[in-house]
Design brief:
14 strands, 15 helices, single chain, binds adenosine-5'-triphosphate, four-stranded antiparallel β-sheet, 37% helix, eight-stranded mixed β-sheet, 18% strand
Length: 451
């Protein structure tokens, strides 16, 4: 730890740039689900069967393994609710893991006592999204920045004040504002105060949870630039959590993509953005709004809802929305037959077409020719179930809509059970280390397309 009369930063870090500072292995965090009238009963229309019993936990983070190198920024990206914050907080042991290990500079944080952890907390810090609520409005910013130093018994009053003022300058604020209250500062400035506070105890590793999401786009880059300068000067390592791909692209050296509690892809930034290997990553990248005036709106947006983390799909958790679900081995389907069958299965499951006679369904989805063999027989049965629904619906002038629902549901169940649930995507959890085309490090992709 530097003394207050020494320049700040360059703490006594014993690791070299590029060495592994954090190693997470099999990290899992399951929460108890809310109890209530339907506690233990789960409904998920994207699953077969859609209702399940007895599962009363939220699988927020499930068997995640990652390494972070000294001095790098690992971006963690994924849709809201995929488990990013839970992963960040579990790594810091702000919440206890259900399973797995967190090795920080070789020591297992998951095994540490509260007192050991308290001492470690000077080396690992966290900054949060909302600088408004994380700064106590009654305290002066000088006190706010000094608080962690006081908690760790660092320096005397004079030393802490000197360091706080120096940090204010480092983060781009005026040290003369030491006695002001947080309300006197803008959102971007408040996030800078947060940074100064986190850096006051000279950490090596900072988990940044959506630190610029609440800021105007014009301010985001300025704050990220400051974070990069401080990273260089202080030798910091960042785990940078964001849902916004442009933010991730700006700040990261490597990127990890998370979906429903799993890490689905990890690669160096350029490799990930230019050569994505996971269908989820591709879908995420394609759903970035296109700044072309001829194209209105957003393209490539993912179909369907994210399944519940209370009852996540087996195998690859993305498979229920994946446009590239793999054909089950037991049917000898051509690529075209499988593409038709998969599209039909999805359309039936989501009821995205109007009821129509069997011949029209065959023409619309299969160009008139159903797949050959056993697969074709199953598809034929499903087509009949959907078509008979239409007849049932037409004949029931009394409004017997139950019959309507049953045919579609039976067809969807038959197709999902016969095809989706027999795919390797449903049976095995994927994990493949691939060669990077544009980078130098391994490209991890959790997708059976790369088996
Ligand atoms: N204390 C808790 N108890 C029960 N479930 C929780 C708890 N905290 C988080 N979850 C659930 O865990 C899942 C992951 O949440 P988490 O906040 O980690 O996601 P996130 O990717 O950070 O999303 P966001 O960006 O919206 O914060 C969600 O389904 C969430 O509802």
């Amino acid at each position: 730890m530097s003394r207050p009369d020494e320049p700040i930063g360059f703490g006594d870090t014993d690791l070299e740039h590029g060495e592994t500072v954090l190693e997470v292995d099999g990290l899992t965090k399951h929460f108890a689900a809310d109890s209530g009238l339907f506690a233990g009963v789960n409904f998920d229309p994207d699953r077969f069967p859609p209702v399940s019993f007895g599962v009363d936990r939220v699988e927020a983070v499930d068997d995640v393994s990652l390494e972070i190198e000294m001095g790098e920024t690992l971006g963690l990206v994924g849709e809201s609710g995929c488990g990013k914050s839970t992963l960040g907080r579990t790594i810091l042991r702000l919440i206890d893991p259900t399973d797995g290990t967190i090795r920080f500079k070789g020591e297992d944080l998951s095994e540490m006592s509260d007192e050991q952890l308290r001492r470690k907390r000077s080396e690992i810090q966290m900054i949060f999204q909302d600088p408004q609520s994380s700064l106590d409005p009654r305290m002066k910013i000088g006190q706010i920045i000094e608080e962690p130093m006081r908690a760790h018994g660092m320096f005397d009053d004079e030393g802490r004040e000197a360091r706080a003022k120096e940090l204010l300058e480092k983060v781009g604020l005026d040290p003369r504002h030491y006695n002001r209250h947080p309300h006197a500062f803008s959102g971007g400035q408040r996030q800078r105060i947060n940074l100064a506070r986190a850096l006051s105890v000279d950490p090596d590793f900072v988990v940044c949870d959506e630190p610029v999401s609440a800021l105007d786009v014009s301010i985001q880059a300025q704050v990220m630039n400051t974070m990069e300068e401080l990273q260089e000067e202080f030798g910091l390592t960042y785990l940078f959590i964001a849902h916004d791909l442009s933010v991730i692209r700006y700040i990261s050296d490597r990127v990890a993509v998370m979906y429903l509690g799993h890490i689905v892809e990890v690669a160096e930034k350029e490799e990930l953005f230019e050569n994505p290997k996971h269908p989820y990553t591709k879908a995420l990248l394609e759903s970035i709004p296109v700044p072309d005036p001829r194209e209105s709106g957003v393209r490539g947006v993912l179909e369907g809802e994210v399944p519940s983390p209370q009852n996540p799909p087996s195998g690859c958790r993305f498979r229920t929305r994946c446009p590239q679900l793999i054909a089950p081995d037991e049917y000898d389907l051509t690529d075209e037959e499988w593409a038709h069958t998969r599209a039909f299965m999805r359309a039936v499951k989501r009821r995205t077409f109007e009821p129509m006679p069997a011949t029209e369904i065959r023409r619309e989805f299969f160009g008139g020719d159903l797949p050959r063999g056993e697969a074709g027989e199953i598809v034929a049965d499903a087509v009949e179930l959907v078509a008979s629904d239409r007849e049932g619906g037409n004949s029931s002038e009394a409004g017997d809509t139950d019959a309507d629902r049953d045919g579609w549901t039976d067809a969807a169940d038959l197709l999902l059970e016969s095809f989706a649930e027999r795919s390797i995507c449903a049976r095995e959890r994927p994990a493949y280390d691939l060669e990077s085309e544009l980078g130098t490090e391994t490209h991890f992709a959790a997708c059976h397309l790369h088996r």
